[in-house]
Design brief:
- It is a single chain.
- By secondary structure, the protein is mostly beta strands.
- The chain is 3% helix and 62% strand.
Length: 255
């Protein structure tokens, strides 16, 4: 249930010192699940070093992005709860420029968090503001009811030292189904892309969400298992900015 660390994106040797800059006084600790940093103060949080996504921001190479899972407990249990902190750091020295923290944002229960990655597509919201994304993927554990979903959150600068979420919980991919464990079953896939449109609302460009959905069936034919593909369904929906964030309708929301 670790994050997908992005070594090779300019962070492989810097993420540790950036974490120490973000959490001064953090102590190293070795547990059953590996190496951790334990944050000071109360309540304490544990950062597994593999749980950090880190990437130099292509839109602003002088800045480095991090997404950090702050576990409530060092040991894994049936239910794992963690905070998510998103950081913008200086690419030249260990200094945190901006940050945003959401408590209890990452919970693995019936659906486990299989990856968290940074999305650095150029989300240019206006002439002065470019957002970046964090994608969270959830996976189910049932063999006969497979499920995987990825949601996208976007963050933008809020003054000199803070970030703020401008988009939350937009489901950008979905794979789910139900089958007999042998062949027969029904499956659904949805893929979504996000584009910046030309119209402005409260100073920010709108987001156009393009969706492609498809239903497939597996059918047993004697000793073979045949896949019957359904027609692709394409839709497009615009998300306006309401002055605080982009409102995501229920049909586009993830978990």
């Amino acid at each position: 249930m670790s994050f997908e660390a992005r070594a090779g994106d300019g962070c492989d040797e810097r993420s540790y010192e950036l974490l120490l800059a973000a959490y001064p006084g953090a102590d190293s600790e070795t547990g059953d699940d590996g190496e951790f940093l334990r944050t000071p103060g109360s309540p304490k949080r544990w950062i597994k070093l593999d749980d950090v996504a880190c990437k130099v921001w292509p839109a602003s190479p002088g800045k480095t992005l991090l997404a950090v899972r702050l576990r409530h407990d060092a040991a894994s249990g049936d239910v794992d709860v963690a905070d998510l902190e998103v950081l913008v750091a200086d690419s030249a020295k260990p200094r945190i420029l901006q940050r945003y923290r959401e408590n209890d944002a990452l919970t693995s229960d019936a659906m486990r968090i299989s990856s968290v990655t940074l999305d650095t597509a150029r989300y240019r919201l206006n002439e002065a503001t470019t957002a970046f994304g964090v994608r969270v993927t959830y996976s189910g554990s049932s063999r006969v009811n497979p499920y995987e979903s990825t949601v996208l959150n976007l963050y933008a600068a809020d003054g000199e030292s803070k970030l703020r979420p401008v988009l939350s919980n937009l489901q950008v991919s979905l794979d789910r189904g139900e089958w007999d464990g042998n062949c027969a079953g029904e499956f659904e896939t949805v893929q979504r892309t996000v584009a910046i449109d030309a119209k402005r609302d409260h100073g920010y460009a709108g987001l156009t969400v393009n969706s492609v959905a498809q239903d497939n069936r597996n059918v047993a034919k004697r000793e073979d298992c045949a896949e019957v593909q359904g027609a692709k369904r394409k839709t497009s929906q615009r998300l306006p900015f309401d002055g605080r964030r982009y409102a995501v309708p229920a049909e586009l929301r993830g978990l």
